[in-house]
Amino acid sequence: MLYLEDYLEMIEQLPMDLRDRFTEMREMDLQVQDYYKALEDADEKVQLANQIYDLQHL
């Protein structure tokens, strides 16, 4: 019956563990979204700098 006791103990903790993991995944997802936004902003700045450079060298 040790297996059953171990199984029941694991099941009791599962919802909290899942909640913790989903919270971690959400936080990571937000970090990735922030990274992509910063990357898009940086790309836009590079494009603007290139346009200004091209205008100065016409």
UniProtKB/TrEMBL annotation:
Gene3D superfamilies registered for this protein in UniProt: 6.10.140.1740
Positions of the Inhibitor of growth protein N-terminal histone-binding domain: 3-58
InterPro entries: ING_fam, ING_N_histone-binding
SMART domains, alphabetized: ING
A cellular-component GO term for this protein: NuA4 histone acetyltransferase complex
Keywords assigned by UniProt, alphabetized: Chromatin regulator, Transcription, Transcription regulation
GO BP term, example: chromatin organization
Pfam families: ING
Name this protein carries in UniProt: Inhibitor of growth protein N-terminal histone-binding domain-containing protein
